[in-house]
């Protein structure tokens, strides 16, 4: 709410959103003067500990923390998706409200800022429309049903102090942690609820040549998540998952030990004395991997950038999805074996990842963190070729690979972190 929001304290914001169940819509776009808009962003950034480039930000509650949804405009479809997914907390009882306004007991004494970042994008009809036939000009059709990307990233800002001098010593660093884990993650990436197909038949007398072709609804050739820091102030300290094979199922706890202080008096501006760690706290994320048809490839082209790709590895080509190779001319028909396509290939894919950035304890200034989430959409084209040889004929089933009949759809979001915030000096957020 323009004008009112910057006057709130962080505790008041949490009270309104988490305890009362209110949803706040911050509209920077309504501030026409660029200087005033900049000051408004700065005020909100000071309030919540981070800032966004978006002119509209929806603030709601999610699992006991604030959730921010940067929007492209007041008519952004994500606005309605978020509003539909947020449950009103009114009338749910005092015990539930107390849980919502307190961090977990294990993290209660750790000075940190925790929040959720909502990423929503409807995949448009145009982005999932492809030719109806690979062989003939038969127009186009839609290969998806209510496709969308809906992910909820968990972000922690905190300060770690050095504790110990051995290999298990905690780092002396400012920490930004970005996760998609079992406790957050969101609804996932959806292309279709089920797979259907359409048939095209040659409309001319045929002795030898393409007799029929088929177009099956879209699946994901790959899913990709990429996280990047805008400058060298921050560098990747840890990232998961590592490279994983297809058909791999595993659960693991991604732990990170933070050095914390127990005896230094601090106020909202940070500690008055030199910070010294007196203990270490293990902050954990539960990650679940069930790769099924996909292998995981991790890439780190620089100290600031890391990406994870879930690349189709099992039955990765249209040819490999066919249950038959040849048949008599009377055996022509749709031949894609849907048992070779796991549901993860087209619905409810939720990546799990954990990326930890560190910055030097004396690093100042701002760093923007950009998060890209994408899916490479591919329809499945197959065809039947009739072979004629005077004394008889047969048909062959063939998979048709057309890399130009694929389309990557990406949703991007970002947030800016100020290294001068009290939380990075071990003070109260």
From TrEMBL:
Ranges of residues in domain Leukocidin/Hemolysin toxin: 159-418
GO cellular component terms listed in the entry, alphabetical order: extracellular region
Residue stretches making up the Hemolytic toxin N-terminal domain: 1-133
This protein's UniProt keywords: Signal
Gene3D superfamilies to which the protein is assigned, alphabetical: Hemolytic toxin, N-terminal domain, Leukocidin/Hemolysin toxin, cytolysin domain
One of the GO biological process terms: cytolysis in another organism
Domain of life: Bacteria
Keyword Signal on entry: yes
Pfam families recorded: Hemolysin_N (PF12563), Leukocidin (PF07968)
Record's keyword annotation contains Nucleotide-binding: no
Entry protein name: Hemolysin
Organism: Aeromonas hydrophila
Upper classification of the organism: Bacteria, Pseudomonadati, Pseudomonadota, Gammaproteobacteria, Aeromonadales
């Amino acid at each position: 709410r323009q004008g009112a929001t910057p006057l709130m304290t962080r505790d008041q914001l949490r009270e309104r959103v988490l305890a009362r169940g209110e949803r706040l819509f911050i509209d920077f776009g309504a501030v026409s003067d660029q200087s005033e808009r900049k000051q408004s962003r700065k005020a909100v950034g000071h309030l919540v500990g981070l800032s966004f480039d978006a002119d509209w930000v929806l603030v709601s509650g999610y699992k006991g923390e604030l959730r921010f949804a940067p929007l492209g405009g007041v008519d952004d479809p994500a606005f309605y998706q978020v509003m539909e997914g947020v449950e009103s907390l009114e009338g749910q009882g005092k015990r539930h409200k107390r849980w919502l306004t307190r961090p977990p007991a294990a993290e209660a004494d750790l000075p940190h800022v925790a929040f959720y970042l909502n990423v929503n994008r409807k995949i448009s009809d145009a982005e999932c429309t492809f030719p109806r036939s690979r062989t003939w000009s038969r127009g186009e059709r839609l290969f998806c049903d209510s496709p969308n990307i809906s992910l909820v990233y968990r972000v922690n800002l905190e300060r770690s102090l050095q504790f110990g001098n051995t290999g298990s010593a905690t780092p002396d660093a400012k920490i930004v942690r970005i996760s998609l884990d079992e406790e957050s993650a969101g609804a996932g990436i959806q292309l279709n609820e089920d797979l259907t197909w359409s048939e095209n038949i040659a409309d001319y007398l045929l002795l030898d040549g393409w007799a029929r072709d088929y177009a099956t609804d879209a699946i994901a050739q790959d899913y990709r998540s990429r996280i990047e820091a805008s400058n060298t102030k921050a560098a990747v300290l840890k990232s998961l998952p590592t490279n994983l094979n297809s058909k791999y199922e595993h659960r693991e706890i991604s732990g990170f030990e933070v050095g914390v202080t127990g005896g230094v008096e601090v106020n909202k501006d940070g500690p008055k004395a030199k910070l010294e760690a007196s203990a270490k706290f293990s902050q954990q994320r539960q990650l679940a991997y069930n790769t099924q048809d996909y292998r995981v490839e991790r890439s780190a082209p620089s100290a600031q950038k890391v990406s994870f790709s879930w690349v189709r590895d099992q039955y990765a080509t249209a040819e490999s999805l066919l249950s038959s190779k040849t048949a008599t001319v009377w055996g022509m028909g749709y031949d894609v074996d849907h048992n070779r396509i796991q549901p993860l290939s087209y619905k409810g894919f939720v990546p799990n990842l954990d990326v930890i950035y560190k910055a030097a304890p004396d690093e100042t200034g701002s760093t923007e963190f950009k998060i890209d989430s994408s899916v490479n959409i591919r329809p499945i084209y197959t065809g039947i070729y009739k072979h004629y040889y005077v004394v008889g004929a047969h048909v062959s089933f063939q998979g048709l690979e057309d890399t130009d009949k694929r389309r990557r759809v990406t949703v991007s979001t970002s947030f800016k972190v100020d290294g001068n915030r009290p939380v990075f000096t071990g003070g109260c957020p």
